[in-house]
Amino acid sequence: MRSVFISYRREDTEGQARALFQDLVLRLGRNSVFMDVDSIALGRDFREVLQERLASCDLMLALIGKDWLDGKDRTGRRRLENPGDFVRLEIAAALKRNIPVTPLLLQGAKMPVPEQLPEDIRDLAFRNGFELSHNRWESDVQELVKRLALVAPNEAPLDRKAIPNKPWLTIAGVSAVAVAVALAGFLYFKKSVPENSKTEIDSSVADRKPTGTNSADKRWRQGNTHYFNSPEFQLSISNEGRYISSPFTVDNLDPSKDFVISFQIKSTRNGGSTRYGIAWNYSPEDFLLFTIHSTAAGYFSIGPGRSRTYAPFSRLSQGYININAEHDFDTLQISKIGSTLVFAINEKEVWRTSNEKLTSNQFAFWVADFSDAVIKSYTVYQ
Question: How do 101-105 and 59-64 pair as beta strands?
């Protein structure tokens, strides 16, 4: 069983930390989850306990709320600037051990950029984060637990209301559910086998559906692909700090409905390009970027582009990611699931948000900073 260390600041995310602690204890057991208030026995030196748990935990969840980055102490100094700040010490110790450290974004908080963090926790900005929403708390926690492999991937979501108080009710309830599931599965199998035998679905298409959707949902099984044959969509630029873009419209996309859209892009410069990707919510002056950085190690970033209100290349999310670069095409995927946008690269989710929305079917292929790259196609599933 993996052990989890919850790092949080009381003035910032005390309530969410408490709720997350209780959810994880129900799944993993009290000995597998550490949160300072509930996990330190009376009379123990909390400094020693923290050191012990930080030295033995398997992963850390760093809760980041709206005031986590800029919260100040009584003297007006930013808490993170204090070398003795416990949150800073906790995260620094976990990063030094190189265990998984997952930033959990709460209350609409954004990922900090490296320049905003002290040197000993600067690497936190490059750790893949996860957004926990108040409105989707149960489903978000379930997805978090699944992605961190804290339970088996096919484990059913926890329902506290469904837990009976009497053992005989538990046995009867489980038996009834098992019979119902078996009967429903048999009837569905009888109905679906003839239909599936008539329409064989290509597995590569079926796999390109939003993360977390049911694999039986037929909305995602038929895609509309558009290929770019024009040389206008093979772009080259050799100026640092400059960019060019080729706009296009996805006519068969309704941003108000759930969708998956997959873009096939590739570097065409020997040794890789610097920045290239997709501009979304595109207009000539304002747009958002879903970008691959393919020099040295693979890297991605998501954030505002050239804008009157944002500095160029500001980032809502960023991190390292395995990419093909000039060796083969990479798939940049944007999906909408209810009110959530999900971003993935080569079928690996890199960011999800309910704060940003796709409001337009105007996109652009985009390159910057010594890049040569091409977009081959996009496919829409809706």
Answer: parallel
